[in-house]
UniProtKB/TrEMBL annotation:
Its main location: membrane. The gene is LOC104786705. InterPro entries: X8, X8_dom_prot. This is Major pollen allergen Ole e 10-like. Residues 30-116 form the X8 domain. It is a lipid-anchor; GPI-anchor. It holds the Pfam family X8. Residues 1-28 form the signal peptide. The lineage of its organism: Eukaryota, Viridiplantae, Streptophyta, Embryophyta, Tracheophyta. It is found in: Cell membrane. Keywords: Glycoprotein, GPI-anchor, Lipoprotein, Membrane, Signal.
């Protein structure tokens, strides 16, 4: 009887480890994007800030992967996130540098060919 109990315990451990390896893992990745309530002039300031502080702005140009949709909020979100990602992914890199217009999200904002880092 002890052998059966040990065998069942071993099988339970093996099955548990198999199941755990197939569970989705929650991502701790975050992105900095524009708030839906942000004003266009704030977002334009954010675009200018990012582009003048070392962020590659080519993806939001007409031939870039993130040009469409051609909206200020979309372009600002991409650049704000690029700034956030390249400056240590700190709250400050999103919320301080983009006050009242930036927010952190755990939902990947990438779409089509526009891949957010």
């Amino acid at each position: 009887m002890a052998n059966i109990s040990q065998l069942l315990s071993l099988m339970a451990i093996l099955l548990s480890s198999i199941m755990i390896n197939h569970l989705p893992v929650a991502s701790s990745k975050q992105w900095c994007v524009s708030k839906q309530t942000a004003k266009d002039d704030q977002l334009e300031d954010n675009i200018n800030f990012a582009c003048s502080n070392g962020i590659d702005c080519r993806p939001i140009l007409p031939s870039g992967a993130c040009f469409k949709p051609n909206t200020t909020i979309s372009h600002a979100s991409y650049l704000m996130n690029d700034y956030y990602q390249s400056h240590g992914r700190t709250n400050e890199a999103c919320l301080f540098f983009f006050p009242n217009s930036g927010m952190l999200t755990s939902t990947d904002p990438s779409y089509n060919q526009c891949i957010y880092k």
